[in-house]
Design goal:
With 158 residues, the chain is mainly β. 11% of the residues lie in helices and 65% in strands. An eight-stranded antiparallel beta barrel has the order 1-2-3-4-5-6-7-8. Strand 1 and strand 2 (38-47) form a beta hairpin. It is elongated.
Amino acid sequence: MKKLFLLSIALIGFAFTTSAQNVSPNAIGLRMGGSDGFGAEISYQRGLDTNNRLEFDLGWRSGNDYDAFKLSGLYQWVMHLDGNFNWYVGAGGGVGSWSSDYREADDGAFIFIAGDIGIEYDFEIPLLISLDFRPELGFSDFNDDLDFDLALGIRYQF
C-alpha cells in the first residue's frame, strides 16, 4: 500500500513538472477578428511567471453602422498541451469609445468584462500564433449584451 501511494505521488509530481512550460517575457503582434464586425488589435503580452501572463489589446472595430476603439486587459493562465501547443484561459475587461454612422444617434463610451479561452502554437523561432474565443459582456447603450469575439493572433516573442 505504501509503495502504491508513493508511486502515485511520484506520478502526480511528474505530471506537474512535465506540464510546466515557459511563457515568453514579452510578445507583440496583431489579433484579428471580431464579433459582429471585423476588427484588428495591436496585442502585447507580458509574461509574469512560467505559466501566467498579462495581455493588453488596443483595437479598432467596424460594423455595418458603427466604428469603435477599445482597450482591453486580461490575466491569462497558460497550460501545456502537447509539443509546442498550449492552451490558455483568462479574465479581464476594458473600455472603449464608439461613433455611429447615423446622424441621430449619439456617440459614446463603453466598458466591458471579458473571459478568454484559446489555443496557441509556439514555433521554434520567436513566433506565436493563436486562436481564441473571448466572450464580452458590455455595460452601455452601444454594447449592453453578450458578444462573442473570435480572433486569430500572431505575435513576435522577445
